[in-house]
Every structure is written in structure tokens, then in C-alpha cells.
Design a protein that fits this description.
The chain is α+β, with helices and mostly antiparallel strands. 26% of the residues lie in helices and 28% in strands. It folds into 3 domains: 258 residues, no CATH class; 88 residues, Immunoglobulin-like, CATH 2.60.40; 83 residues, Immunoglobulin-like (Sandwich), CATH 2.60.40. This is Transglutaminase-like domain-containing protein.
Length: 496
């Protein structure tokens, strides 16, 4: 076995530094200016050149005990077990470095990216009508965000060409049907799995292909490569934390026949991202979000929104759901804070999801999804300090604080019947375990009301109840961690 591993890695080399080649942008511009038919290629050169000198890629590296960088051909490795064993035997560790784009690519690379992308646009019926703006933003780019450039386009063109050409010759050659065929093909050889031996924040195509499995984020990125290679505009939208349920999500979005980028075009059974507290789009284009809009206000505070620490993200919450701005009057105690966070309830804790600068003691949190509980927090040297304010936005755009809603209706004794601690399929209560009903107070604390064992798989609590109150069901530690807030309205559980 060891001999086979050694043979497999016989091509491993220590990385040697080399002088980067200068990209001859003017030469490309001149070449594509000679013929009017190359106008899109000319626009592509100008698009890729913009902010190019400030662009970089994240590269996964392997290091030996002497800190030598070892180049491993991930795309030539059979499986994760083989890589794991080799790294253990040779005592290698993985790390990520940032490399300037100008040190990676040359003029030939840029020309190839443009020629391949334009060729895919001109090849199929569904891609010929794509606007130049969408083409430049979501088909042309040779990477999604900050991953290392790879040869994903030629790979997918090779494995998809047959069935896409066949579809294009039919009358059903819509962009949705092309996307569904691509989806069907990928799910034949790629599977969902949250465990990955390599877990880069910016996995390149070779890393995705090597494992043949991944969580929603990796699957979304793989789909984007496949769709772009077919001339279909696509990118990844990120939900850092749902807010309406635990955890986060990533979804590929692509152009549909209505001319908009949408999630779940290839499926009919999903709700998409309509219940996400915030949605952020990964872009190739420079947005300047962190450098220009956030970092000037941080002072010396650690910034707790990792998904914002880049310049390639835009807020697209309004493209997926109903949302409104939340304006918050900052209390005097926190008036010196340069910015505030707005948090959502996630795995039993309030965690930041968005931010706002302090503008004359007013914080404006833009595009916040309706019917999700939020809590304000102030930055500290060690993290955050939660303010007592719990609020939400109604479907009409009204911002309500929960310390007001208790007074709207006179409370009375009521029976609350419940058999789950969140809306998941595996969240049912168990007969031998003790559960506690908790009430969310206006100061953000949870008050224990009553504890019981279930009967016939169900709990019944007789309490003084207001239909506008928020509760959660807790028990052992794992349940506390997973429990979600809920309301009890007209004898029904409304999960938040």
C-alpha cells in the first residue's frame, strides 16, 4: 500500500518561485479592436482588467516540517483516504496563502478565458440571448470569488457537450431545461456530505472534484462552474445564518427565462431563500464592501462578520424575500460605539448577521427580512455586548419591539400543546425526557415557566398566555442547542 502511495505522488515537487509575466492588456485591447464582431471580447478585456492589480487568489498549500511548500496534484489523487495517509506518513500540513492575480496569470490565460467564455455564449440557443452585462458578471469570470484559477470550463464542456447539444436541437431548449440536465448529471457523480478532509474557505475546482462530495457551499460552487461553461449566468448566494432556523446555507443562483437570477431553478420542491435573514452574493467584480464601507469604522474592534471581510460581496436579500430597513435609536450608553450589530437566534445564542455604522446615534440596518427575531449588539474588545432590545419587522414594514406587544391583548390561561422543539423532522420530544417551556422576556432573557414529561408523544402546558408571546422548549443540552423560538396562535405552533 505504501509503495502505491509513493508511486502515486512521484510527481510531487517543491514549489519554486518564478518571475511573474506581465499581462499585455494593451495588446489584447488592440487585437479585439480591429473587428466590430469582437466588441464583446473587447468589453471582456476591459472588465477583467478593472481592479486586476488589487485582485488575489487563495491557494491551498501543503507544508513539510521544514516549512517547504510541497505541490500536490490533488486532481491526480484517488480519494481522501489516500491523501490523508500520505500526509500522515510525510508529516505534512495544509495551509492557505494569498497570491496576487498578476503573479498567477499571463496574457495567454486572459485570452483563453475570453475566447472560451464567448464561445460558450455563442454555442447554445439559451445563451445567445444573455445580456452582455450578465455575461460579463456571471459567465466570463474565470473564478467565482477568490479561489485559485483552474481549468473547470474545459472539463465541463467535455462532459456536458453531448447532452447539451442534443437538447439544443429540440424545441425544449430553454435555459431551465438546460440547467436541469446539468443538475441531473452532477448528482450522478457528486453527493452531499458535510465531512471533508480538505476544507478551504475558497475551494478551487480541483479541490471540489477531488473529493466528489461536499456540503451545500461546495455543491453550489460546483454547479456555478458547470452552468457557466454552458453559457448560463450563475453565481453563489450565501446565507450566513438563516435566522428562521439554525445554521446557514449556500445556494447557486442562475438566470431563468424571466431574465432574473433565481435560486432553485432546477427544482420545484424548495422554498428557496425566502426565509433567510440576509442573503449575500459572491461576485468576481470588486464591490469595495469591506475596504471602503466597513474598515474605516472598525477602530480597534474585532469584526464579527466573517462573510463581510472581502471586497467581492453584495447584499441581495431583497431579490429573495420581503425585507425592510430597521432604524434603531442608539441608547446613550452605546453612543460612542462606531457601529452596531444586529443579531439572529442561532443554535441557542444571539449571533451577529449584519451591521450598521453609528450615524448621529442612529443605526440603520438595511434589507432585513420580515418575521424574524433580531437583537441589537454593540462591539467590544472581546466580541459583542448584547442590548436588551428584541425586535422584528412585520409584513407591512412595521418595526416592533417585543416589550410592546405583550400589552396589546389581555393575557389569560391557555393550553399550549407541542410535540417538537424545532420544525425539523428529528425534533420530536421523547417520553422519558424532561422538557421545560420558556418565555422570552422583553430584556432578551428566557424565563422558565413549567417542566413536564411528555404523554403520548406530546406536552401540554397550562399557562398565562398572550398570543404575541415567544416561547421555546428546552431539555437536555442538545435540545437547548437546537431549540427554536415559537408563537402559539389559534392553537398552532408558528416557528421563528
Amino acid at each position: 500500500m505504501l509503495r502505491r502511495i509513493i508511486l502515486l505522488f512521484s510527481l510531487i515537487l517543491i514549489i519554486q518561485c518564478k518571475e511573474p509575466e506581465i499581462i499585455e492588456w494593451n495588446s489584447l485591447i488592440n487585437d479585439y479592436s480591429k473587428d466590430d464582431r469582437d466588441s464583446l471580447k473587447l468589453k471582456s478585456v476591459l472588465f477583467l482588467r478593472n481592479k486586476f492589480e488589487s485582485r488575489y487568489s487563495e491557494k491551498l498549500l501543503f507544508m513539510d516540517k521544514k516549512n517547504n511548500r510541497i505541490k500536490i496534484r490533488i486532481d491526480s489523487i484517488q480519494n481522501e483516504a489516500t491523501l490523508m495517509k500520505y500526509m500522515q506518513i510525510n508529516k505534512l500540513e495544509s495551509s492557505v496563502i494569498k497570491i496576487k492575480e498578476s503573479e498567477i496569470l499571463n496574457t495567454k490565460d486572459i485570452r483563453r478565458f475570453i475566447e472560451e467564455a464567448v464561445s460558450s455564449r455563442e454555442r447554445y440557443s439559451w445563451s445567445k440571448g444573455v445580456s452582455e452585462d450578465l455575461f460579463l458578471k456571471y459567465v466570463l469570470p474565470y473564478k467565482i470569488e477568490m479561489e485559485f484559477p483552474t481549468e473547470w470550463r474545459s472539463y465541463f464542456e467535455r462532459i456536458q457537450q453531448g447532452f447539451l447539444d442534443s437538447l439544443d436541437r429540440t424545441t425544449d431548449n430553454s435555459i431551465e431545461n438546460a440547467a436541469k440536465l446539468i443538475s441531473k448529471n452532477i448528482y450522478q457523480w457528486y453527493r452531499y456530505d458535510k465531512s471533508n478532509y480538505l476544507f478551504s474557505q475558497q475551494p478551487d475546482f480541483n479541490e471540489l472534484l477531488f473529493s466528489r462530495k461536499g456540503e451545500c457551499y461546495r455543491i453550489a460552487r460546483l454547479f456555478v462552474y458547470a452552468l457557466r461553461s454552458a453559457g448560463i449566468p450563475a453565481t453563489v448566494d450565501i446565507v450566513p445564518k438563516w435566522g428562521s432556523k439554525n445554521a446557514g446555507h449556500a445556494e447557486f443562483v442562475l438566470l431563468d427565462s424571466s431574465g432574473n437570477l433565481k435560486a432553485n431553478v432546477t427544482t420545484e420542491h424548495k422554498q428557496g431563500l425566502c426565509r433567510a435573514s440576509k442573503v449575500f452574493r459572491q461576485n468576481f467584480s470588486y464591490s469595495g464592501l469591506y475596504t471602503d464601507s466597513i474598515s474605516p469604522y472598525l477602530r480597534n474592534y474585532p469584526f464579527k462578520l466573517d462573510h463581510f471581510i472581502n471586497d467581492n460581496t453584495t447584499d441581495v436579500t431583497n431579490e429573495h424575500t420581503t425585507c425592510y430597513d430597521i432604524k434603531f435609536n442608539i441608547p446613550d450608553k452605546y453612543s460612542s460605539s462606531p457601529f452596531l450589530y444586529i443579531c439572529v437566534y442561532n443554535y441557542g445564542a444571539w449571533e451577529p448577521i449584519f451591521w450598521s455604522k453609528n450615524n448621529n446615534n442612529i443605526a440603520s440596518f438595511r434589507k432585513m427580512t420580515t418575521n424574524i427575531l433580531y437583537r441589537i449588539a454593540s462591539p467590544t474588545e472581546n466580541g459583542i455586548e448584547l442590548l436588551p432590545n428584541i425586535l422584528f419587522v412585520t409584513n407591512k414594514g412595521e418595526v416592533q419591539n417585543i416589550d410592546h406587544i405583550y400589552l396589546k391583548k389581555k393575557s389569560k390561561f391557555h393550553i399550549i400543546k407541542i410535540n417538537k422543539f424545532n420544525d425539523g423532522e428529528r425534533a420530536h420530544v421523547e417520553s422519558e425526557k424532561l422538557y421545560t417551556l420558556n418565555l422570552l422576556l422583553s430584556n432578551g432573557e428566557w424565563k422558565k415557566l413549567e417542566s413536564k414529561y411528555p404523554k403520548n408523544g406530546r406536552l401540554s402546558f397550562r399557562i398565562i398566555h398572550s398570543p404575541n408571546s415567544f416561547y421555546k422548549l428546552t431539555g437536555e443540552n442538545s435540545i437547548d442547542y437546537l431549540a427554536r423560538p415559537f408563537q402559539y396562535v389559534n392553537n398552532k405552533i408558528i416557528w421563528w
